[in-house]
Fold this sequence. Notes:
The protein is of the alpha/beta class. The chain has two domains: 2-80, Urease, subunit C, domain 1, CATH 2.30.40.10; 82-377, Metal-dependent hydrolases (TIM Barrel, Alpha-Beta Barrel). Helix content is 28%, strand content 19%. It has helices at residues 96-101, 104-120, 134-141, 182-185, 195-208, 235-247, 259-267, 281-290, 301-305, 312-320, 323-333, 348-351, 354-358; strands spanning 5-7, 25-33, 45-50, 53-58, 69-79, 82-87, 123-128, 149-152, 156-158, 189-191, 213-216, 252-256, 272-275, 293-296, 338-340, 413-414. Strands 1-5-2-3-4-16 form a six-stranded mixed β-sheet, with no helix packed on it. Strands 11-12-13-14-15 form a five-stranded parallel β-sheet.
Amino acid sequence: MIGAFLTASLFFSAGARAQDTPANSILIKNVRIFDGKGGPLSPPSNVMIKGNLIDGIAMAPMAAHDGGTVIEREGRTLIPGLIDAHWHSMLIRPSPAESIFGDVGYNNIAAAAEATDTLMRGFTTVRDVGWPVFGLKAAIDGGLVPGPRIYPSGAIITVTSGHGDFRQLSELPRTIGGMLSRMEQIGGSVVADSPDAVRVRVREQLMQGASQIKLTAGGGVSSPFSPIDVSTFTKAELRAAVEAADNWGTYVTVHAFTPAAIQLSIAAGVKCIEHGFLMDDATAKLMSEKGILLSTQPLPEALRQGFPVGTVQREKADEVWPGIARTYELAKKYKLKTAWGTDVLFSQALAKQQGAILASLTRCTLRRRRSPWRPALMPSCWRSPESAVPIAESWASSKRARLRILFWSTETRWKTSA
């Protein structure tokens, strides 16, 4: 899909802050612009970019700056940068075993190469929901590696035997206060079995630069010892995470499939639910009433089939996958605030289909809009930018950082809003 389009933000590193000089200007000539709102494409136009901001758009000819770059696109389509709201930057290229027990340096280099590929697929922002991505983010922001803006969660916070607890049975029993497991040492997942332990782990992620916090409130497919139907954290533990995140001006998002896990999380103050594939009508209604965001994914069949037949992971995948279509129906019925991601894991081949996966929302009834760029990309449960809301004004008034994420936002900002 991306090959047919031209994404404005691909011409500079998404994290780096280019200086506003003629040499850093880019004139894109003869493009038809899709503004992200679903309307018709613009007439053939020219776009001037200075630094990392759109400086002007005009149908009339525009003069290039001396030393600037001129790109002639011959009537192709220019679109805003794409956002993947559920991504794992460190977990695309390694195998499950390599992601924990492999060489950390090698895994970071592989993740950097994948980040460049992600950017070149047109994704200029990803919300990373688990694994040690702070170093990669720093490299991108510093201009060392081309890649998307990363909003990191840091380590997945889980409970003993919860989703994200990838320890082996041979590592039990755990000595409280003893040596950390390998997955904890590398910052992939951390186990917290009390409200106090949760607060410590949350604050550790915030200390490293997390823009949101990720907990697993229920069982998951890929974890070997977490049944799908369990609720893992207690309300007090979830509430401890919410309070710690609130103190830093940010929010908690939780992995949750079942009504019980979702409702318990909402009662504890969680603002965003990941997946939600087994939710029921009452739970969707509650989410609508409370203004809870649903971050869900059109998971491809190839991902389910990637789990070997006969494994516990494949059995759980077979249980979860039929619920995806029902989740879409409930999101549409109750007009839930939605964010979309892909959740690709352990497959470079699937990652190459990242754009196609996001475009595969055929489980929803599609609005057949008169749009020359691709009507099938506009599902009826899609929410336009006017109705989208920020899920995090992370540290917006804080001196620590100025972070903001708005799903469905244009990734190259207008000069007047900078």
